[in-house]
Amino acid sequence: MPIIHNQINKFWYKPSYDKFIKSSFVKQIFVEKDSEDFTATGAYLIKMAKKISKKHIPWNEDRRLEILANPRLENALFSLGAEYLIKGVFLYNGYAVNKQKQGFTFPTHPIPLKNNKNKLEMSEVPSLFYFKSYINRIVNFSKFDKKQKRTELSETKKEKGQKLSGITRMTIPYPKSNALLDYILFKRNYSLHRPFIMSEFVGLTNQLYDFLNYIAVEGCGKSIGKLAKLKK
């Protein structure tokens, strides 16, 4: 206890952003055994976000802040949860989530943890864009993409001949994995930094959760529901 007390005191003596990121507290090479921490936290946040997304309050200017709080909180939980989950999948499959050190190059990415830990930066991790770019080398999305196509064709067939005044298309799109990864990145990089709400179909929101569940199952063998149970 005295050691921790002294370390924290030293840490907070003339603190600065640069001092924060160079602190011994944040220096860690994440390895395979850390994957459970990432995936469980991510799944829990995603499950919370899904619950919040179901809260719909009819618009009332007097309740503006209360109404906007739900989608903003859903965006924050969803975005952070997706990032934790995806990084956990990388670790689970033996790939690094730390940045490579300057002076080291790797012929392929993602970077295998085996024999490369000394080539990784202890205080830095790549942005979500990196993980979005390489997750298809860990998770095969072909089954998901085929399911999306089948579902869209099925829904279009069901709605054939039905019309509503002013509505040009009765069914919603069923994007493939690349588009959904782009949307997750968009939510992560914008919803946490800009105070606006992106209009979404409820069906599309459900697709995003199904997509993350697919990543969880294909990437580490467990559903979001199972991963989100933090108590064993």
Architecture blueprint of SSEs:
Layout (H helix, E strand, L loop, with lengths): L1 H10 L5 H5 L13 H19 L10 H29 L35 H7 L7 H17 L18 H15 L10 H19 L3 H4 L5
Helix pairs in contact: 3-4, 3-8, 4-7, 4-8
The structural class is mainly alpha
Number of helices in the DSSP assignment: 9
The whole-angstrom Rg is 21 Å
Q: Output the helix-strand order.
A: HHHHHHHHH
Nearest-integer average pLDDT:
89
How much β-strand is present in the residues?
under 5%
Largest sheet: none
Distance between the termini: 28 Å
Poorly predicted sequence stretches spanning 5 or more consecutive residues: none
Helix content: 40-55%
Oligomer: single chain
User: What is the total number of structural domains?
Assistant: 1
DSSP, total strands: 0
General shape: globular
